[in-house]
């Protein structure tokens, strides 16, 4: 009696055994769950900040009547709301004023703060720490405390009320927060670079321009973005100095005009809000690497 030999069955080419496929799926599932567990706090924070923007955008695409309901999704996509806001009388003027305020304010603040930060970081002189404390102490003074005398000075003495000049001109004298952040970064630059520049015959100004500034680009980008965002979103300053002249309004203050005494077109208000936020989001998206690097490096050394 002979044994009957049956050929062993082998999996087809490219076909995985069932137990291996199940193990791979289990491993992927565990990896995904581990990733979610590790990043759950970040995901929750991201949703917390993103959902309001989604709500604003969806409301901006609703009709006037639907914007007053509890609906979260537009029945019809009203893209014409953006063109309606763009064609609103004065909107382009507010846009131009905001660009002037943010651009000039950022440039003046950064240019005027760099020499002060450099002196406080690299110069050795009596009273340096006192000067630094005086600069920092100005950050503790709310603008509301000095707004009355400042308004009387700009409006009654210089007759500049109804313009943005009372907001732009003071930025030519530096900003305490900008000075502090730049100083923190400049402290991380080794003193040997300054000494080597002096050996080569460079004066203080040439050392600052040709040696220090190229190394301080990340910090300069960070403080410039901080100042740009502040000016772009500033509501208090234009309300105090420019409210009497609609031709001097900025976008943040002009948004108030979309709210009526008895009725508010919330779809148009949200569309205007999207148009105001868009440039800031775009600027931050393209400059976030320099921004994060600058903020990180400014806290390396105190």
Explain this structure to me?
The structure is a single chain. The protein is mostly helical. The chain folds into 2 domains: 25-60, no CATH class; 90-297, MetI-like (MetI-like fold, Orthogonal Bundle). The protein has 13 helices and no strands. Helix 3 (91-122) runs antiparallel to helix 10, helix 4 (128-137) packs across helix 7 and helix 10 (217-233) packs antiparallel against helix 13. The longest helix has 43 residues, at 18-60.
Shape: flat
The CATH homologous superfamily of the largest domain corresponds to MetI-like
What share of the residues lie within helices?
A: 55-70%
Structural class: mainly alpha
Instruction: Tell me the series of helices and strands, N- to C-terminal.
Output: HHHHHHHHHHHHH
Low-pLDDT stretches: none
Task: Give the averaged pLDDT, no decimals.
Answer: 84
Key phrases:
single chain; 302 residues; mainly alpha; MetI-like fold; 13 helices; 0% strand; flat
What's the helix and strand layout?
Blueprint: H1 18-60, H2 80-86, H3 91-122, H4 128-137, H5 143-157, H6 165-168, H7 176-186, H8 191-199, H9 204-215, H10 217-233, H11 236-241, H12 251-254, H13 266-297
Helix pairs in contact: 1-13, 2-13, 3-7, 3-10, 4-7, 7-10, 8-9, 10-13
Outline of the structure:
By secondary structure, the protein is an all-alpha fold. It has helices at residues 18-60, 80-86, 91-122, 128-137, 143-157, 165-168, 176-186, 191-199, 204-215, 217-233, 236-241, 251-254, 266-297. The longest helix has 43 residues, at 18-60.
């Amino acid at each position: 009696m002979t044994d009957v030999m049956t050929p062993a069955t082998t999996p087809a080419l490219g076909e995985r055994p069932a137990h291996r496929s199940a193990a791979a799926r289990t491993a992927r599932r565990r990896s995904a769950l581990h990733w979610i567990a590790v990043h759950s706090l970040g995901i929750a924070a991201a949703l917390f900040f993103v959902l309001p923007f989604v709500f604003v955008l969806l409301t901006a695409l609703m009709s006037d009547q639907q914007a007053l309901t509890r609906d979260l999704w537009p029945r019809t996509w009203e893209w014409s709301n953006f063109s309606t806001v763009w064609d609103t009388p004065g909107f382009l003027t507010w846009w131009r004023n905001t660009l002037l305020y943010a651009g000039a304010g950022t440039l003046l603040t950064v240019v005027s703060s760099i020499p002060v930060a450099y002196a406080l970081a690299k110069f050795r002189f009596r009273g340096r720490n006192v000067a630094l404390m005086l600069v920092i102490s100005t950050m503790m003074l709310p603008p509301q405390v000095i707004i009355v005398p400042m308004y009387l000075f700009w409006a009654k003495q210089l007759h500049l009320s109804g313009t943005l000049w009372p907001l732009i001109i003071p930025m030519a004298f530096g900003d305490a927060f900008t000075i502090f952040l730049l100083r923190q970064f400049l402290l991380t630059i080794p003193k040997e670079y300054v000494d080597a520049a002096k050996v080569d015959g460079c004066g203080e100004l040439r050392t600052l321009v040709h040696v220090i500034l190229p190394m301080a680009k990340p910090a300069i980008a960070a403080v410039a973005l901080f100042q740009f965002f502040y000016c772009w979103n500033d509501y208090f300053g234009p309300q105090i100095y420019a409210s009497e002249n609609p031709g001097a309004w900025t976008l943040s203050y002009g948004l108030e005009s979309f709210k009526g005494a008895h009725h508010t077109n919330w779809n148009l208000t949200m569309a205007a809000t999207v148009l105001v936020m868009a440039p800031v989001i775009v600027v931050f998206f393209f400059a976030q690497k320099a921004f994060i690097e600058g903020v990180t490096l400014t806290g390396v050394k105190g």
